[in-house]
Write a structure and sequence with these properties.
The structure is a single chain. The protein is α/β, with parallel strands linked by helices. It is 24% helix and 29% strand. It contains three helices and seven strands. Strands 1-2-5-4-3 form a five-stranded mixed β-sheet. The chain has a two-stranded parallel sheet with strand order 6-7. It is globular. The protein starts with a helix and ends in a 28-residue tail after the last strand.
C-alpha cells in the first residue's frame, strides 16, 4: 500500500501553493489546503487517471478550541487502482462553512451530516444538511470540547 506522498507531490505540481504537505505519521502522509480549493481539488483527485481516488472512505472533524481557526476537517480517500490512501485536512471556523463534496462522492452525504451533527460544521451545497444521529431539537454538538460533561 502506498503512503499518499505520490499523490501529494502531484497535487503540489498541479495546484502549486494551494496544496501544502502537512506531514507524515506512521508512514502516512497528509496534505492541507484551504476550503475554497477543496471542491476543485477533490474532483481532480477523482477524475485524473493518475490519481483515481474514487472512494471517499471517511469525513470527520476535530475541535481545537485554543487554536485559530478551531475546527479541522479530515478527509480519507482511497485509490483502488493505485492501492493508495490519502488524507486531506483543512481548518475552518466554528461553523465552517466548507464546500460539500456530495457532488463529487455520494458517500460524502451522510458523512457530512454526521460531522455537522457532532461538530456543527456546515457544508455549503449539501443536498440535505440536517441531524442524522441526534434528535432534531438537540442544540449542542457532542464532539466539541466545550460540551459540558455530565458529572452525576
Amino acid at each position: 500500500m502506498a503512503d499518499g506522498k505520490r499523490a501529494i507531490d502531484a497535487m503540489i505540481q498541479r495546484f502549486g501553493d494551494r496544496v501544502r504537505h502537512g506531514g507524515e505519521h506512521q508512514g502516512q502522509h497528509w496534505c492541507t489546503l484551504d476550503a475554497e480549493n477543496l471542491l476543485e481539488i477533490a474532483a481532480w483527485l477523482r477524475d485524473e487517471p493518475e490519481m483515481d481516488y474514487r472512494y471517499l472512505v471517511d469525513v470527520t472533524g476535530a475541535h481545537f478550541p485554543d487554536e485559530t481557526p478551531p475546527m479541522e476537517m479530515i478527509y480519507h480517500l482511497y485509490s483502488h487502482k493505485h492501492d493508495d490512501y490519502l488524507r486531506i485536512k483543512l481548518r475552518t471556523g466554528d461553523e465552517g462553512p466548507v464546500p460539500s463534496l456530495s457532488s463529487v462522492w455520494k458517500s460524502a452525504d451522510w458523512n457530512e451530516r454526521e460531522t455537522y451533527d457532532m461538530f456543527g460544521i456546515r457544508f455549503d451545497g449539501h443536498p440535505d444538511l440536517r441531524r442524522i444521529l441526534m434528535p432534531d431539537d438537540y442544540t449542542e454538538y457532542p464532539l466539541r470540547k466545550e460540551l459540558p460533561l455530565f458529572r452525576g
